[in-house]
Design a protein that fits this description.
By secondary structure, the chain is α+β, with helices and mostly antiparallel strands. The protein folds into three domains: 155 residues, Beta-Lactamase (2-Layer Sandwich), CATH 3.30.450; 260 residues, Heat Shock Protein 90 (2-Layer Sandwich), CATH 3.30.565.10; 41 residues, no CATH class. The protein is rod-shaped and about 165 Å long. The protein starts with a helix and ends with a helix.
């Protein structure tokens, strides 16, 4: 049983039931003792009356002056009886005994006037309660006589059973009322937890950034710890992303310079050297992109309190694509319903930046972007009329590192990065054929504030190691999966076609390449003397 409410209620019901059962037994026992005492007192009164009306004549015969006041003694087998015995023999008995006698006790009484109460089997084997006294009678008051008055135990058992029935019924009603009170008490005790759960739901839907409100002392520490955990998670995620960005920016310039040197070598006719450098730069780009993606995938960083409107994100990215060639020559159609996704804005930029960039490069004339709510999730589809992806290659391109056309710049990991981002946030990415003849990529993401996304993000923890796109640090992808690297198109566009002029950058890059032995030394030009002098001055 995992419900706290049911546990507390079950404990309360069990406790109340045991307490009421014990109370019922005690009440019935007390009532029985009281009735028995009253019954014994009534029998003793009859015994004293019997002692007062017996008389012994000079011949020793015992007679009654008059009958006892209770008419039951005159009715045969009425349930009340009296008897006078002398020397162990009944000498006088009530008419109610008929032809029966009360059995003599094994232990005789000691001392006149002593009252003794016992239980015996009487007429018709009915249990009797007997009170006995030893009295001295006769002219000289020297003859002991045993007076006994008995009554059936049914006079006690009947009221006891009736009282027990009433007590059982009353305690049952009381138990039900106490159970209802316990349910209400448990509900009142768990109400702060219910309010806390509601605040967590609001936090997950993005309506608040921390847990607020007046909480009981028992929960105030937990709330403070949760708020601290939320803040620490946000800080750690931001720190990881900042470090990844710094690493990407730090590697972007050296790799861009290497690419520029390769272009300069190609312009000089040293195509083989340029091709070797470009090949190694491409390999380094792919490795850096994967490393940055893994480093920045610190878990579902939008798991708490995140809602991002899809429309503005897609419109912004499409406007960027329209400014790049050949995106300025394509017909971009957008049909987006107003919807929020439980994904960080930067992750949406990374995810759809890859996908829209793919569509821009491969579409022939038109790209269609649609977004709709389906089965409680938001589905974004990107259709192009390009050459498409062969069915047998669709699974491989999602794995990353596969390029279907090496004439197009890229590393082939963009689709893998986009798929990893979608799964990281509890979504999915499916590649299929478009009705326009090209490729259709459908992405499903949890709607902003949808609680189901949390469970799916937990199940997608293995996606933490999936590749992430470093948009500012990466190259433009090839159709095999977009992708990014430490060299962006914008960075390459800003670099001059000839050698760098500041601080002998070309000499520094050539020296680095020479030390790594990526390219044979004879393929690389020698640094100019002034650069050696500058390098010496730097030391």
């Amino acid at each position: 049983m995992r419900s706290i409410r049911l546990r507390l209620l079950l404990g309360a019901v069990v406790g109340v039931t045991i307490a009421l059962a014990i109370a019922g037994v005690v009440l019935v026992a007390v009532f029985e003792a009281h009735v028995r005492e009253r019954y014994v007192k009534e029998l003793d009164d009859h015994l004293l009356q019997l002692a007062a009306v017996i008389q012994v004549d000079p011949a020793g015969a015992i007679t009654l002056k008059h009958d006892l006041s209770d008419p039951g003694f005159q009715r045969p087998l009425s349930g009340v009886y009296w008897q006078v015995a002398e020397g162990g023999r009944a000498v006088l008995r009530s008419r109610s005994l008929w032809d029966e006698v009360l059995p003599e006790k094994a232990n005789p009484l000691e001392g006149a006037g002593t009252l003794q109460v016992s239980e015996i089997a009487g007429p018709q084997r009915h249990p009797l309660i007997v009170v006995e006294r030893l009295v001295l009678a006769g002219p000289a008051a020297d003859k002991p006589h045993l007076l006994a008055v008995a009554g059936e135990r049914a006079a006690i058992d009947g009221p006891r059973r009736e009282f027990a029935r009433i007590v059982a019924l009353s305690l049952t009603v009381l138990g039900v009322l106490l159970a209802a009170a316990s349910w209400a008490q448990v509900g009142a005790g768990l109400a702060p937890l219910r309010r806390l759960r509601g605040q967590l739901d609001r936090l997950r839907r993005g309506e608040t950034r921390r847990l607020e409100g007046d909480h009981p002392d028992e929960l105030s520490g937990l709330v403070a710890d949760l708020n601290g955990l939320i803040e620490a998670q946000a800080k750690e995620a931001e720190r990881a992303r900042a470090n990844a960005g710094k690493l990407g920016h730090g590697l972007k310039t050296p790799l861009a310079l290497l690419a520029a040197e390769a272009r300069a070598l190609r312009e000089k006719g040293e195509a083989s050297a340029a091709e070797a450098i470009e090949r190694e730069v491409e390999t380094m780009n792919a490795r850096v992109a994967r490393t940055l993606a893994a480093a920045r995938a610190v878990g579902p960083r939008t798991a708490i309190g995140m809602r991002t409107a899809l429309g503005p994100v897609l419109q912004h990215l499409i406007s960027v694509m329209k400014r790049l060639s050949p995106g300025d020559q394509l017909d971009w159609s957008v049909s987006v319903v107003p919807a929020d996704a439980a994904v960080d804005r930067r992750d949406l930029d990374d995810l759809f930046g890859n996908l829209l960039d793919n569509a821009r490069k491969w579409a022939r004339s038109r790209v269609l972007v649609t977004a709709r709510i389906r089965d409680g999730r938001v589905e974004i589809a990107i259709d192009d009329d390009g050459p498409g992806i062969p069915k047998e290659m669709m699974h491989e391109v999602l794995a990353g590192g596969v390029r279907l056309d090496r004439t197009v710049p890229g590393t082939g990991i963009g689709l893998g990065i986009a798929k990893g981002l979608a799964e990281l946030h509890g979504g999915s990415l499916v590649v299929g054929e478009s009705e326009r003849g090209g490729t259709r990529i459908a992405v499903q993401l949890p709607v902003g504030g949808a609680p189901g996304g949390m469970k799916e993000r937990a199940r997608g923890s293995e996606a933490k190691n999936a590749a992430r796109r470093a948009q500012d640090e990466g190259p433009v992808a090839g159709r095999g999966g977009g992708g990014s690297s430490a060299v962006s198109r914008r960075s390459l566009a800003k670099l001059p076609g000839k050698r760098p002029s500041r601080v002998c950058g070309r000499a520094m890059i050539l020296g680095a390449v020479r030390r790594t032995r990526i390219v044979p030394p004879q393929w690389l030009p020698r640094p100019r003397p002034r650069c050696v002098t500058a390098e010496a001055r730097g030391r």
